Amino acid sequence: MPQMAPMSWLFLFSFFSITLILFTIINYFFTIYQPISLKEEISTPKISLNWKW
Fold first, then answer.
1. Which of 4, 18, 34, 36 is close enough to 8 for a disulfide, judged by CB 3.0 to 4.6 Å?
2. DSSP at 1
3. What pTM did the predictor assign?
4. Which tens digits make up the pLDDT trace of 1-27?
5. How the protein assembles, per its UniProt entry (predicted)?
6. DSSP secondary structure of 30-50
7. Residue 9 CB partners (closer than 8 Å, separation 6+)
């Protein structure tokens, strides 16, 4: 079974590290966040629990 040269391992490590970093940067900057509007927040009913012991 042939062994890989150390330069090949270094290249593979750097290649996968760079792709991981680029993938996380792309996911971080291109996600779309939709803020909660105040109308939706006000329209939700608030349930208050009155405990009678």
1. 4
2. -
3. 0.50
4. 466 677 788 889 999 999 999 999 999
5. F-type ATPases have 2 components, CF(1) - the catalytic core - and CF(0) - the membrane proton channel.
6. S----PPPHHHHHHSPPP---
7. none
Extract the tokens encoding 31.
Answer: 């996600």
CA–CA dist 30, 23 (Å, integer): 11
φ, ψ dihedrals at 15, nearest 5°: -65, -50
Kindly state the tokens that stand for 49.
Answer: 């629990």
Token representation of residue 50: 């009155």
Burial class (CB in 10 A: 0-12, 13-18, 19+), 45: exposed
Question: Which residue is listed with tokens 């109308």?
Answer: 39
Give the Cα separation of 53 and 49 in Å (integer): 12
Whole-number Å distance between alpha carbons of 12 and 53: 67
Tokens of 26: 């792309």
